[in-house]
Amino acid sequence: MRPAAGWELQNMLLPMIDRQMSVEIVGSGSKRAIGRPFQAAAQLTTAAMQGIWLYEPTELVMSAQAGTPLAQVEATLASNGQMLSFEPIDLGPTTGGPRGTQTIGSIFASNSSGSRRITAGAARDNLLGIEAVNGRAELFHAGGRVMKNVTGVDLCRGLAGSWGTLAVLTAVTFKVLPWPEAAATLVYFGLPDDIGTEVMCAAMRLPYEVSGAVHLSQALARRLEHEGLRRQGRSITALRIENFRSSIGYRSEALKDALKVYGDPAVLDTTDSLSFWGELRHLSVMPYNRDTCLWRISTAPTAGPKVVAAIKRHMPAEAYYDWSGGLIWVEVPASADAGASDIRRAVAVNGGHATLIRAEPEVRASVEVFQPQAPAVEKLMRGLKDAFDPYRVLNPGRMYASF
Amino acid sequence: MTHLQMPTPDASVLGRSQQIIKDLTALAGAEAVIADEEGRRTFETDGLTAYRCMPLAVVLPTTTEEVSRILKYCHREGIKVVARGAGTSLCGGALPVEDAVVVGVSRMNRVLEIDYDNRFIRVETGITNLGISGAVSAEGFFYAPDPSSQLACTLAGNLGMNSGGAHCLKYGVTTNNVLGLKVVLMDGEVIELGGGHLDAEGYDLMGLMIGSEGQFGIVTEATVRILKAAEGARPMLMGFGSSEAAGACVAGIIGAGIVPVAMEFMDKPAIEVCEAFAKAGYPLDVEALLIIEVEGSDDEISEMLGRIQAIAEPFGPTSILISQSAEQSAKIWKGRKSAFGAIGRISDYYCMDGTIPLSRLPDVLRRIGEICEGHGLKVANIFHAGDGNLHPLILYDANDPSSSERAELAGADILRLCVEVGGCLTGEHGVGVEKRDLMNDQFSATDLTVQIRVKTVFDPKWLLNPGKVFPLNDTQQAKDVA
To answer: Where does the FAD-binding PCMH-type domain start and stop, copy by copy (chain A) (predicted)?
Structure first.
């Protein structure tokens, strides 16, 4: 099914609802391998709903149909010196899907944020308004096109990150920001995970608005596309500063000085920074590999190395730390449960949650892909599913087996 | 003000009031329960003082467990509950109903944990907004959302209303600054959402809870982000001969790729009143004033202000004043932040809170002037220009029923205007009772039904903060279905 408008989508869903037949919701399909596998009688794509229908650069706002390619959105913004500040990440390549085909709707449906999330907020924080069709085939709106809006229940937040299980986003309105005039990246080499995290947290405690803080293990740094960094053959800890040109020199020096006990970092200029942070946006260091599984762990930054150390007591693991250490992409050998029980225990002890991003379908069918919830929380989530999709038409079982 | 229709009190609850008070006392202790008339009188209204109603009783618990016991009891007995922070709501969000128990979190105001490395603070939600920043200011940190009432308002209320402030253009509103919540649901169940990490798992229940105006649960603890303050900050004042020029200047600044930490707009009536109060050095011979603040080191601030001045040049500012000292900066902000109080000294006023697309500002200001004039009233406008949040202050005489009624009618017209031009009814104050009956102007019946179903998931019996947010007809239908 390939509706070109919200009303058409409604009409297509109605017979499916009547027959209680489930539908797989996709944009370009680049994230189909994420989540629990589920049976669907049909597939519905938003790909035919395209177009940017509102863009006011001076109001920092854009509205687009959900199926509009992200690439088109970003190109249009770039031509006005603007960007999606949360740097949406592309999980296509790492999960065996295509690269660079994502739709703007899918970015918000999966709440996909990249490195700048630590200062610019997540995708969900930048979502201002939605038009969507729920599993009752009702077309509804929430939010709007203005930056500040507390009118009614905050359904923009409620639907962001719900992976098409509550409603199909048909149009989204979101906040955009100017590209910074210049950037620099300080790169520290050879630090172990815990010291790397210490550097990142120390940097975030300073007033220089570090907008990216990542740490890559030695093995992962060797997979970088960036030749200069790859050739170093050592772990890297990278800090990004962005501002107007004359400020960058000042902030780099101030940051270096404050962190001098950790050594003398290499400094990437604006162009080099763009290419380094650009490759992280498609998880270049975690390429698709059937012999490994990939987990995404969110925890408090200082707990990051502890979580990884706890996992390593049970299995080999390579870790890429983003968000100052609070977001960890962990690659572990493929196994029947993808290491779920040990990984979830490591997370439980330190706080946070873990999502299995890449594993063979039979593995994703047998373990909890998304973090299991406390019974009272699960009851609310099930209630939301009942409210939006009582007939279990939209991506049933993709997030949680029982709904 | 006109008569406000509220849900019909439950006679069986009113009839049991003595027993209910006795039971609450047993659950929370005598010192936590306020049942005498004088005591309850303190809680009969909030920041929207036009509406008043004495609650059945007030409970001020000191622990999450007490809140849980009280809600569990009220849930079992079918007693309505109105959650309350400091009672500063400007939309009647904390207005009691006759057959409700007010549960106030003001005694739960402890700081539980400060973690600078992970940049969060965990607090009980009765703490004031400014109290959070106060707890971390010694280390140079702050909590970003800064509503004008920050000295008094509680985090609980900020969470309920998803409060903003003057600096949210850069730092976001409440929902963008919260990591975790401990929530007591209406049935007494205590749930934890999020924690010290970013992005809560599963459905974004935290996102739904924030801004739910006390209708989804009572938040007793929260983990919020704290940020390292910039090295320095400095505001500048720019006066313009017209609101068109000031609005175009704001657009010019953003269009040039500069997003200042705050951009505040005041029209002539607002400037005059604030200057008389704060002696901040606001120019009095202008039609519109912008307060623009930038942050950074001294050199960065100078460069940024220089650039802004250059951008502003073609829009013909008639006066420019760059703050030269911390005292001057404080005065400039004092004028703006005490604007409501300053206006309150010369007249009763009714503060509106719509949001509009910036490009519509001149048109909207003209039509607001016409609307108020049509009702025989004066108006002063304060505007968070960067994010489009407009605060028209309608001046009226509270002792004159006709004047009050006209103020209310003008306010409703202004909010409809905000919706008409592509904005919304409320940018940061919330819907409460004040804008409840305008919700149909912004949302379709389906839009509201979808919201109401979510409310029903959290509070199936519709006991929490009754009569707010949703038009009463819709509420009744939802309850019938539930």
So the answer is: 1-179
CA distance A298 to chain B (A): 6
A298-316: average pLDDT? 97
| Residue type, position A239, single letter | L
d(CA A352, CA A307): 10
Query: Is residue B89 over pLDDT 70?
Result: yes
State pLDDT tens for residues A338-373: 999 999 999 999 999 999 999 999 999 999 999 999
Q: What is the pLDDT of residue B482?
A: 58
Partner-chain contact A153 B451, CB within 8 Å = yes
pLDDT in tens, B1-18: 557 899 999 999 999 999
d(CA A119, CA A203): 13
**A299 in contact with B, Cβ within 8 Å:** yes
Residue A258 has pLDDT above 70, yes or no: yes
The CATH code of the domain at B111-228 is: 3.30.465.10
Burial status of residue A179 (CB atoms within 10 A of its CB: 0-12, 13-18, 19 or more)? middle
Question: Are B118 and A302 an interchain contact pair (Cβ–Cβ within 8 Å)?
Answer: yes
For chain B, which residues make up each domain, given as ranges?
Answer: 11-104, 111-228, 233-339, 347-436, 443-481
Instruction: Please check whether residue A399 touches B, CB under 8 A.
Output: yes
Nearest Cβ partner for A376 among B169, B189, B448: B189
Q: In what order do the strands lie in the sheet with B100-104?
A: B33-34, B57-59, B100-104, B80-84
Whether ipTM tops 0.95, in short, is yes
The CATH architecture to which A292-366 belongs is 2-Layer Sandwich (3.30)
Residue closest to B129 by CA, chosen among B178, B169, B75 = B178
Residues of chain B with Cβ-Cβ distance to A181 below 8 Å are 257
Fold of the domain spanning B233-339: Alpha-Beta Plaits (3.30.70)
